[in-house]
Amino acid sequence: MDRRITLLLLLLLAATVTIGAGAQGPIPSARDGFRAKRVPHQPGFRVFIVPDMEGMGSAVDSREVLAGNEGAAYRDRSSPDYWDRFRLLLTKEVNATIRGARIAGARSFVVNEGHGGNLFANVLPWDLDSAAILVRGFPKPLLMITGLDSTFGTVMFTGAHANAGSPGVMAHNFAFDAFTVNGRTLNEVGINALIAGEMGVSVSMVSGDDVLVEETKQMLGNGVIGVVVKRAVGRSAAITYSPAHVRQLLQVAAAEAVRRELRGDFKPFTLERPYRIELTMRRSYADSVVTAVAGLQEFKLERVGDRTFRLVTNSAREMGYLLDAIEDVVLR
Amino acid sequence: MVALAIAPWILAAQDRPATPPVQAAPRDTTPPAAYFGVTEYQLARQKLELDMQRGGFTVYIIADMEGLAAAVRNATEMRPENRGGTPQHQRFRQELTDEVNALIAGARSAGATQFIVNEGHGGTLFRNVLPELLDSAAILIRGYPKPIVMSTGINPMVDAMMIVGAHANAGSPGVIAHNFAFDSFTVNGHVLNEAGIAAFIGGEMGVPMALAAGDDALTAETREMLGPIETVTVKTVFSRAAAAGLSPAVVHRLLRVGAARAVRRVKAGELKPLTFAKPYQVRFCLRRSYDDWVRATVGGLNGVRADGGPGCYAYTTESAELVGNLLNEVEWTVLKP
Asked: What is the ipTM score, two decimals?
């Protein structure tokens, strides 16, 4: 899609959302101000990187990706002796991705923490490639895709994990047992690809275990480059490779991704509007969580089942805002 | 493997605390709630085969911890802090990684080209080797639960198995001696320790166990079970929690030399796979210290039948891999994440 048309659409959508919010009640929250913000502009080809942790090389257990401070439910699901080590591995994976992209000509890098462990603050800022802008912390307007706009050339997901119910390592999908748009099942990469697609930005690379790579390729259907950094042999066990080898794979794949993106090989991921979004909250959550989600005033959520909600919207961005709001309920 | 049920009184007898001992929390006796999905064992094997090159010489290394150089005490050295251990465990993770790297270096010098490392110590849920410090040529299988526990993915493309940090059998006079969750385990009447069980599963694939490293009790009993394989004795046992150990630096040198010799001997056809007549008659007794619900759960597993006393069972099968699968089920019963 032409960038200008995209921009125009976005402005229109933003106006719709604002008016919609106005109709709910005249509360101009700080949120609206944050949602309008952009990361500083940089010249050259821009790469947006979303590092998650479950799909990193070597990681197999929740204790390796949680800090233990994410809320009561996670208090005993952590082990700092493990999590600390994996923060450094995570940072090095991102650096390898940046290195590869740079070799192929990319000049601007925004890294948006995609992992809720330690409330979206896992990358080590002092060890991250100094060219990168790092979006960290929580809550943030579009959660895993916060900071993306139409000036970016491509999106890459590293350390991504398979969908809830898939036989992948630490497989899950935000706070959901199921998430569909227009009847199509989306994993976390798919959901964020849709938001990016609406901005005219395509996903060029995704890394994770073999299950994640397979399902994401099918979901996006745009020839996205998949990097298998481990093979799942259980929900918490995998065949893994040397972190040095994984970084090499990521570097080569990121370079290839930028080259092919510059040739226009990847189509942005789009679905027909209006989006009919259906989400089912995880069975393991307390009823109070479901009640709190039902009570989210900003969104016109329709409850269509015990734990299932429907949202019909013309804006994938609104879907992103909803994810942030739900995550806020869950991690509170 | 994990030493799960060292009875508190044994530890109490070994420790002489200056302060009155803290009342230990009562043992968790509830069965595990949800099964953590495990990939079906044959699919897991296929996945590993995808990563293997044909040709060359492949070594499959099982990395346990009790038989590491200098290791003597389960409570402080074998467990991480979040499972009731101490920070000392981190130093032994490093030692484990060093010993595995020594095996790889030695095997490589004798012409081995591919290395698969499978985590074999459950005290940390099979996450002990330090991935960033392991020889970068190696594939590392880690996490819990995983199919066939200590022999995940073993297949006929492997040329030799080795076990490092191994410990003596349950009832043997070794450091932290035990055998999975069993007081005894036999196949066709042959007593097997953990190294022997791995050799049995590998043996069906035509893969010989070529080297075992651990204390003197482990190396002696394993040679008895498997014949004159390469062994590296890293310490001489003085009690269940005491030993006279060689310097880790010396142990690393012995492991390099031993691994090189093991590869040469396999190439020369001197070391044969361990094989038994089919069907395999497996008999085992669970540790007496386990609660009734453990016996009830294991006794209810598919194909397991009661045999000679409480906690003792028999299992008949044509497939050693299925025995490995059974081990995973038993582990899952007694070892909670």
From this structure: 0.85
